[in-house]
Amino acid sequence: MRERLNSNPNDVIVKHLIEGRLFGNIDPDFREMSRVNRAHAIMLAETGILPRKVVSIILAGLARLDARGSEALVLNPDLEELYFNIEHALVEEVGADAGGRLHTARSRNDLYAAVLRMKARGYSLRMSHLLVDLIEAVIACQRP
Questions:
Q1: How far apart are the first and last CA of the chain?
Q2: What is the tens place of the pLDDT at every residue in 75-130?
Q3: Helix, strand counts (H, E) of the chain
Q4: What is the CA 102 to chain-centroid distance, rounded?
Q5: What pLDDT, on the 0 to 100 scale, is given for residue 74?
Q6: Please, is 121 exposed, middle or buried when counting C-beta atoms within 10 Å of its C-beta (0-12, 13-18, 19+)?
Q7: Are the C-beta atoms of 90 and 62 separated by less than 8 Å?
Q8: CA 8 to chain centre
Q9: Measured between alpha carbons, how far is 72 from 68 in angstroms, rounded to an integer?
Q10: What are the CA-CA distances from residue 118 to residues 22, 29, 44, 58, 126 (Å)?
């Protein structure tokens, strides 16, 4: 979390860099980030990095956040980005001891890279299906 910093981001930074990303359509990022968070938590348990009991608490909290959806998040631009807002919501949900451990053994950059790849994969799959539909429609028009 941001406790290592002793002040919030400058208002100009918040207005021009943070608010646009944070208050736009965050649902796709939230959805993919939730999937990555669950996978990461499971990895933490399977490798023994975190005790299974702690991971169970984390997964239960993530499931409750997922059930409420991105629109239920109370977004705070002082937390800078969706990553920290979800972490804050998880800590509120399950407590700092468990919620604060989700990001053990990964960086924010790792998380965002995985989210970006998953979103790109989803877009590619949708485009591929649309292309197949188009090809089938063209073939159907060519039949006598």
A1: 65
A2: 888 787 888 899 999 999 999 999 999 999 998 888 989 999 999 999 999 999 99
A3: 7, 0
A4: 12
A5: 85
A6: exposed
A7: yes
A8: 22
A9: 6
A10: 19, 10, 20, 22, 12
Residue pair 26/69 in contact (Cβ under 8 Å)? The answer is no
Q: Residue 135: what residue type?
A: I
Residue 88 phi/psi, 5-degree rounding, is -60, -45
Rounded Cα distance between 99 and 25, Å, is 25
pTM of the model: 0.77
Classify residue 46 as exposed, middle or buried by CB count within 10 Å of its CB (0-12, 13-18, 19+): exposed
The confidence band for 18, taking pLDDT boundaries of 50, 70 and 90, is low
Is residue 74 helix, strand or coil? Answer: coil
